[in-house]
Amino acid sequence: MKKQSSKKVSRSVLLGAAFLMATSSIGPGFLTQTTVFTQQLAASFGFVILISLILDVVVQMNVWRIIGVSGLRGQEIANKVLPGLGVVLAILIVIGGLAFNIGNVAGAGLGLNAMLGLDPITGAIISAVVAIFIFVVKEAGKAMDKFAQFAGFIMILLMIYVAFKTFPPVGEALANTVMPETISWFAIVTLVGGTVGGYITFAGGHRLLDAGVKGIESLPEITKSSVTGIAATGIMRVALFLAVLGVVSQGLVIDADNPAASVFQLAAGNIGYRIFGIIMWAAAITSVVGAAYTSVSFIRTFHPIIEKYHNWIIIGFIIVSTTIFAFVGRPVNILIIVGALNALILPLALGTLLVGAYKKKIVGEYKHPLWLTITGVIVVAIMAYLGIITLIEQLPLLFK
What we know:
The chain is mainly α. The chain has 17 helices and no strands. α1 (2-25) packs antiparallel against α10 (200-210). It is found in: Membrane.
């Protein structure tokens, strides 16, 4: 009986880590990006999803394996590769996580507005209370796992339902996924950055560490969990893509001011708009939880007091994000510039971990697969180049 119980706990933890990563990446920006790019690229967006998913798998398998084998968090590995680098990485992650959490809180408020007609600020405060409650309960880690799984399944089921309602041209989508009429590298980079960039890169790996899943003997489970997370994100992305494609192929006009909500309304009327509210709220609230948890996990090792009271610091993180949204709104210029910085966190983090994978003081006798190293280096090079270009383009906006 004990053996079976241990297996159950392990499966729950693995699914929890996978869905924490997946639901962290499926935020308000995810819904808007997918809708806008599908409008622009039509069926060719299928190719963008395919390439971005391949790159996502490369990133997550590298990051989760190296964290799991070393038994160290991202900032600890970075400090062992180059003293002080972990502090730099932690600062970037926390600043990025805080800025994007303002957007996540705003998205949760908009979700409750669409679902129940509540004022967005009131909705944001209620959502923050729900997120805080998860970290107040005794078994916060288990509560977070269950919440992420439940919200993830609800989002996927509702999204698939809406996709069916729009009768998308599936054959055309499949053909363009393999042989696209148009290729947008900007869309690919945006999707990769939004799915595995910034704090999201480490969400699942750090959760597994906290649950005690580490060491070479845990590699099969770690790999399975990382791929499950990307698969969940991929199902959601494909379902939303097909829903939007179905609307676009019918010649219906999507509202530019609120594209994602418009798609759901066009697909299923007022019920569709309420469904959008549920999905937006679930996407945003899980991203609030994921951003707060992962951002604070980057400073936990810096002082014993932070480690001791990390749940309360997570709660403080959520309160600060909500307060800024309630009193200042969404600081658009700051969000844009932090978004560009987030694009640079991925190559910095992945590059550092790949170096760490070849240091015995970090991974012991573990041999990192060559194919993962080579594909990882390619992703680092592509994302670093495009991230720098994006940052240069966006910097002037900060001073407008």
